[in-house]
Amino acid sequence: MKIRFATIKDAPELLKIYEQYIDTPITFEEKIPSLYEYEQRIDNIIRRYPYLVCKSNNVIIGYAYAHRQMERDAYQWNAELSVYLLPDYTSRGFGKILYSILIDILKLQGIKNVYGGVTLPNEKSEKLHYALGFNKLGIYRNTGYKCGKWHDVIWFEKKISEYDPTPKRMRDNLATMSDFRPLDETELAAVRKVAETLRGKGAIPCTACRYCTSGCPMGIDIPSFFSCYNSKVMFGRPQSSERYAELVKKGTGPNDCMTCGHCEEVCPQHLRIRSLLRDVAEEFDA
Fold this sequence. Notes:
The chain is 37% helix and 20% strand. By secondary structure, it is an alpha+beta fold. Helix 5 crosses helix 7 (222-235) and helix 7 (222-235) crosses helix 10 (273-285). The chain is globular.
């Protein structure tokens, strides 16, 4: 089993899983969305929230994601969770694993409460929420009509973080420069040399200004990975392979990027950092 963050490229497989729920009351959607529409949904979510896929034998068997619970600003510290699995993989612990990882990531983002809605009856999903410590909030009676009948929906809630007296707004809930080790002079010189050589040639003109890393909620040392990547492009080998391995081992590798987009917002060179991190991950994880 392997769990990773979803990308738009996963849309065809995820849509096939979702299609199996269209003729059931588990989802209140009645028509299968187009592939393009589903790609847009994934893209909109991964800009702000974690979206996970679970693979077994190189096949995606399920996925789970968080999304905005309510639109008004005061609700920004909440998130709603959803999980979908292939029928043969339900009641085998995969949903619990995916939910648990989502909650761990949301804690890092500063989310305080998570919610889940379940169309009744659905014993498996109810057990999942109770097993993870969710509390029953209440039931919306006859709130949806599908498959020829009216359905009730039960709502669950779980507190995952402390309620700060003056919580930081989600957009500002970012780490500071002091949380990260700056590149040493050798690493910095390597980045600048390679970036200058490759500037304008379709590679990465990163100058290691570190604006991206200073605001990364996952603590990814982005310039270090770009240094490795540029050196591989330039010289056929990573410049700082030991540093790369060290960061990946600590859980701050490019695969840990949750595509929140803050790095791209602050980059003075307007780099498409999220795409570049995926490239780095593919280069070095191959």
